[in-house]
């Protein structure tokens, strides 16, 4: 199924702010009531609730550990999500989430078109909220158009100023909430209240405030039409069995206004269909799209035009769903008088679902089986080895022991692959032998410089493969890391 690249031009008045991207008339979305509008309000309330409330959810992880359920601790180099704790070296979990998210959008688009864009995209959610404020303070669509065309007066200035003040307040709360995800929320709120907040927090909060205000208040649909790349990607995601917003032209054309004295028999005889060309479907569209022109990349699939058209059809006594969510294959069948079918299970939906399940399964298994201990070894390269006065050969290593538990641990460090090896720790007197006892603080990386000494006759010339072992004294868990021992 191909999508037209046509970008509709609304017929309403322009406002200077709308020229920041491209010269096009400003879109004044009208209010509408119906099941899709209610669904959008429900999605808005749920998503904004999750966004604003999540940083305040507490999760007890023990003493000395952040108790914020969802937190990206940049200072501690850790990310927390309820019972899951992610370390920097486990960034592949983030990769897995991105893969699941991407294919989740592919999956939803294949089934229902741009449902993500119409209901869950942050640009859509906050723009919806800003438009609600605009309608409350400046009135319905026709009144807003007249207000923008009118000369500047004290009354107009007051209404405009109040609208932008509320927009800035929402943007400020939005930017502040985002910063709470990277700092302990109660602590940061106290710092903000007492004026002790850091410059970095102020900078990032200001940045997110400005972008929210600009994108949702000024850019609006232009982000969806000109900036967002998803508008182009969707053409590769949909097919003949994708449910998308559709105008039934076989029923609605030819369109013409309905005269009061005209009967439907007379209208049909004149070659007119159910569409009375009221343009309400265009007026309620957040992007100003005329769905009657066919599928277009500017359509975000919100379904508000369906609500508007059904309202008009009810008023004139005609069947609803002249505009509806339907598939291209169903439209062809209906036009030919055949029954419609629904094919949710298709090769591409199966493939997308399997990819998500496989990646999610791998992440779950990895989380369930991941160790609480990790060892990394870096051998000194200058010098490669040291010949001691008694003829022994010595190599130096920097060993890091990662303790992922919330308690202090001791580990038995040994080297496998060398005969008669003796280990010692730099800066620690009195400890040497075939194994060392080393400690690590809770949720930390302990770093040690280790010397491995081997009699000259007990090691072959050149490189010998060895394995450094760290055994947890409490749980018996073993961390391993391969390295080499160099001898002349």
Structure description:
By secondary structure, this protein is an alpha+beta fold. 42% of the residues lie in helices and 19% in strands. It contains 16 helices and 15 strands. Strands 6, 7, 8, 10, 11 and 13 form a 6-stranded antiparallel beta sheet that branches. A 4-stranded antiparallel beta sheet has the order 12-9-14-15, with no helix packed on it. A hairpin with a 6-residue loop joins strand 10 and strand 11. Helix 4 packs antiparallel against helix 6 (154-180) and helix 6 crosses helix 8 (199-219). The longest helix is centred in the middle third of the chain and has 27 residues, at 154-180. The chain is elongated and about 115 Å long.
List the helices and strands and how they pair.
Layout lengths: L34 H19 L16 E4 L4 E4 L2 E3 L5 H21 L2 H6 L1 H17 L2 H9 L4 H27 L4 H10 L4 H21 L1 H7 L2 H8 L6 E4 L1 H4 L11 H6 L10 H4 L20 H13 L6 E4 L1 H8 L11 H23 L3 E7 L6 E2 L5 E11 L5 E8 L5 E4 L6 E2 L1 E6 L3 E11 L7 E11 L5 E10 L1
Antiparallel strand pairs: 1-2, 2-3, 4-5, 6-8, 7-8, 8-13, 9-12, 9-14, 10-11, 10-13, 14-15
Helix pairs in contact: 1-4, 2-16, 4-6, 4-8, 6-8
Structural class: alpha+beta
Helix content: 40-55%
The average pLDDT value, as a whole number, equals 89
Molecular shape: elongated
Instruction: Give unreliable regions as ranges.
Output: 4-19
Indicate the proportion of strand residues. Answer: 15-25%
| Helix run count | 16
- Tell how many strands the DSSP assignment holds: 15
Intertermini distance: 69 Å
| Biggest sheet descriptor | 6 strands, antiparallel
Indicate the radius of gyration in whole angstroms.
33 Å
């Amino acid at each position: 199924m191909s999508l037209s690249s046509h970008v509709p031009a609304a017929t309403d008045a322009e406002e200077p702010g709308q020229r920041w991207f491209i010269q096009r008339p400003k879109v004044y979305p009208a209010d509408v009531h119906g099941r899709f509008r209610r669904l959008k309000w429900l999605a808005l309330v749920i998503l904004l609730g999750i966004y604003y409330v999540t940083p305040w959810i507490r999760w007890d992880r023990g003493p000395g550990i952040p108790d914020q359920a969802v937190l990206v601790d940049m200072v501690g180099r850790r990310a927390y999500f309820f019972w899951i704790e992610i370390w920097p070296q486990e960034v592949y979990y983030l990769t897995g989430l991105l893969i699941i998210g991407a294919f989740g959008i592919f999956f939803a688009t294949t089934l229902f078109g741009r449902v993500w864009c119409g209901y869950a995209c942050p640009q859509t959610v906050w723009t919806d909220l800003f438009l609600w404020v605009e309608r409350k303070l400046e009135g319905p669509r026709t009144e807003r158009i007249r207000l923008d065309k009118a000369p500047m007066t004290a009354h107009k200035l007051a209404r405009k100023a109040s609208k932008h003040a509320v927009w800035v307040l929402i943007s400020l709360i939005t930017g502040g909430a985002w910063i709470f995800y990277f700092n302990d929320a109660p602590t940061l709120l106290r710092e903000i209240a007492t004026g002790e907040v850091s410059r970095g927090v102020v900078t990032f909060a200001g940045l997110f405030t400005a972008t929210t205000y600009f994108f949702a208040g000024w850019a609006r649909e232009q982000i969806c039409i000109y900036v967002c790349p998803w508008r182009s990607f969707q053409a590769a995601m949909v097919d003949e069995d994708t449910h998308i917003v559709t105008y039934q032209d076989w029923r609605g054309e030819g369109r013409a206004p309905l005269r009061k004295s005209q009967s439907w028999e007379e209208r049909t005889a004149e070659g007119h269909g159910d569409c009375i060309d009221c343009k309400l479907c265009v007026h309620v569209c957040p992007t100003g799209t005329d769905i009657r022109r066919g599928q277009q990349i500017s359509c975000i699939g919100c379904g508000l035009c369906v609500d508007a058209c059904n309202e008009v059809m009810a008023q004139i006594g005609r069947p609803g769903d002249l505009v509806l969510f339907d598939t291209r294959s169903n439209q062809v069948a209906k036009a030919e008088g055949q029954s419609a079918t629904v094919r949710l299970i298709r090769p591409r939906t199966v493939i997308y679902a399997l990819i998500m399940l496989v990646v999610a399964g791998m992440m779950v298994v990895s989380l369930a089986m991941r160790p609480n201990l990790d060892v990394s070894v870096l051998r000194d390269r200058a010098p490669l080895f040291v010949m001691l006065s008694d003829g022994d050969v010595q190599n130096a290593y920097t060993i890091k022991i990662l303790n992922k538990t919330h308690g202090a641990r001791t580990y038995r460090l040994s080297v496998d692959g060398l005969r008669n090896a003796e280990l010692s720790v730099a800066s620690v007197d009195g400890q040497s032998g075939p194994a060392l006892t080393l400690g690590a603080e809770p949720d930390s990386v302990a770093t040690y410089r280790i010397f491995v000494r081997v009699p000259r006759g007990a090691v072959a010339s050149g490189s010998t493969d060895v394995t450094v072992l760290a055994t947890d004294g409490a749980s018996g868990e073993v961390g391993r890391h391969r390295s080499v021992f160099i001898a002349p």
